[in-house]
Protein 1
Amino acid sequence: MYFLRKNTLKDLKVFFVYTILLFISIISVLTFRFVFQSYDLYILFYRFFIVGEFALISHFFAFNIMQIRLKKLIKFLIVPFSIFSIYDYITSFGKPFTFYPLVLECLLFPLIIILFFYERMKYITKAPIYQSATFWIAVGFLVFSTGNFFLFLSSKLLLQDRQNMALYNHIYDFFTVLKNIFLCIAIKSSRNSKINNNEFEAIINLPFENFTSLKNKANL
């Protein structure tokens, strides 16, 4: 609640909702898996978490991207992703868990984050981008998505025996811990961030007539 009171930006509020969803999902998944021992409920709730995670994180980056078309495109991606996740759940019901929604998520997140970094490096000049909380959140999800993309893609082969399953768990745990470290840095840096979206929007919307050519000044 301290984090929510100290940050009035919409994007950080969305990130706060994501952390609540993550906490509830961990408790629920562990409960369904080990207390009730219901694999079907475990898979169903985990599917809802994947859709919720993609929707919230996509909204988070949409708030931080100022080009209207890109904002609409990122928000639109939530719809086909949700449809694909529901379709994959229905077609794979009663079968081993499929990682296709996670593969798609790990493919889309890096593309969105690259667009975010492009805009930030192009237009932010008042302070280094690493001083903002959004930078560390983006780094965390970029590392997690790129690190686990091929892991999820080859999950069927890796999960066939215990040795490969142990390797799978070690790789996944490593990138998860790394992501959480970056997210903790983001929470800490949000207290004294020098960059906000209002300044960014003001920079990106500067009219070109306010700029004068250095070459013309040299000829005066």
Protein 2
Amino acid sequence: MPHTTLRHADAETVQDYVLTRSIMRFSRGAPPEEWQFEHREVRLASGPRWDESHAFLYDYTLARIAVAADRRPARRVHGTPEFVEHILDSVRASASESARRLWAARRAEPAAAPEATTVALVSLLLAPPAREDRPTLMRRLPPPYPA
């Protein structure tokens, strides 16, 4: 996708773009470096829209994939898995505004790194889904964040 398209994209287009690329990465068990590269590319391509909305839409889409794949944080480490559990519950319940508030609160914490939410969600997607789960993954996706 050309950088100018993503920079001016609406919520639906951003989510479709992130979903398509993330499902491919998840399905083949891409390494963390590849996820980092993609995150950086989307952030740069989004320009000022990254902080306005695209960062949230990126994480919301990762949470949708984690819910569809029935992924959960393995253990609690200083608040991050608790955040992940809560945002996954919100996405699973299609409580999109609740997910947005949780995400914004986590990002506003002084000790939180800007990408901490993304890192926590990507960590759930590093192992690919079982082969038998791949065909039904898309059917189990929660709905996108409303545009």
Protein 3
Amino acid sequence: MVPDTDPSREQMCTDPPETALQRPKRRRVLLLVGTCLLGLLLLVVWGFGRLPFAEIRGSFQKTTALALKKIHLGLLMFAGDDPNHCLPTDLGELHDSGTYTATKIWIIPGSGTKQPQTGDDIRNGLTDYVLLVPGQPLDALSPESALMITNPRFVPEKGISVLLRSGEVRWYEQVPAEVKQQLQHLHDPQPSSGG
């Protein structure tokens, strides 16, 4: 006759009591680890879904607003030093005057614009900002007048930031009509009076 002994059954019966108590603990740990991994996976998927639109656009708005506010202070200092309280004729003049010699302020990080080294570089387009009212007397502008904008080439992806005379920076998805008119005025040759 063969004895009726199953080795696994014998092992279960001879396990010390603490091992039996450890089994539920292992299950809880595995459940906790699984929950954490699932939560992490959901966070990553949710985060990647938001990044291209909200995070990048928000970062662009914050970066340009900060730079425009700094440049606004420079414009105020420049106009304060000018006998007629006029703004510079171009952003390169603001650099050349010594008001802003740090060239990093003239570009938006990640824009692909080459870092300007001189006022001439800025005059020749190595900047991500446009001065809308060059040479204008600061005192003649209303607080709601647009002084500067981010380069309109950013509009399709990131919108446009507009610096007002008051120092406020506003963000728009599209170029506002009054800013379009100012840009047109900048690019159109002055009408001749001779006819």
